[in-house]
Structure formats: structure tokens, C-alpha cells
Amino acid sequence: MATVKLLTDADAEAIPAVKAVFDDIRATRKNDFINNFWRALANDPANLKRVWESLKSVMTVEGTLDPLTREMIYIAVSTANSCQYCIQSHTAAARSRGMTDAQHGELLAVIGLAAQTNHLAIAMQVPSDPEFDVK
What we know:
With 135 residues, this protein is an all-alpha fold. The protein has helices at 9-13, 16-29, 36-41, 45-59, 67-80, 84-96, 101-124.
């Protein structure tokens, strides 16, 4: 259960700053769906705007990483941070951007391997190799 109210569209209509962000989310994503993360953040309109602008500046701009790769990285980081909500929402986004079952399987294998080797390196307190330093 959420720890904050999830603002409805009617609630958002009554708060111009929230309505503006919700309208931008809809326009950017080219659909009418506002997911619960944004509805929860809407309790603080300034934070809602800040986080949405930040997300847009990373996830929706042209760059050297394609949109699917960005979503897959988001899934990996969300897994590392144990964020079920983000894992589900970004897996759905990745699938909508063309992620196949085979790609998802490989992603999960990489996530699992990285988690295992990260924990082993931490447990053994292995020092970094000087060859890995930026020169």
C-alpha cells in the first residue's frame, strides 16, 4: 500500500503545476497513461516537476545509448536497488521498445552474475588493480 495519496486526474486538474507535468508526461509518451509513481510524486508538485525533468533529460533525449539500452540499464540498477516498482515499469518500457525474451534472459544472467561477483569482491575486500585507473 502506498504511503502517500495517489493523485487522480481530477486532483491533478485542480493543481496547475501538477496538471502541467501530467500533460507533459502524456505528450512526451504519446499516450494518456500516468503511472502511479508520478501520481505519488504529485503530492509535491515541485519535486514532481524536478524528477520528471531529470528523467526526460536522461531517458528521452538523443544520445549514443539507444532507448532500449537505457531501459535495460535502468532494470539492472533497479534490481540492484531492490525497487520492484521500477523493475516492473522499466521492463514494460523495455519490452515496448523491442526487448525480446532472449534479451531479457541475457540481461537477467548479467544482473545475476554481477550481483554474485560484486558480493564476492566486497566480501574479500579485493583492491582495485592499478591497470584499471584512468590515465
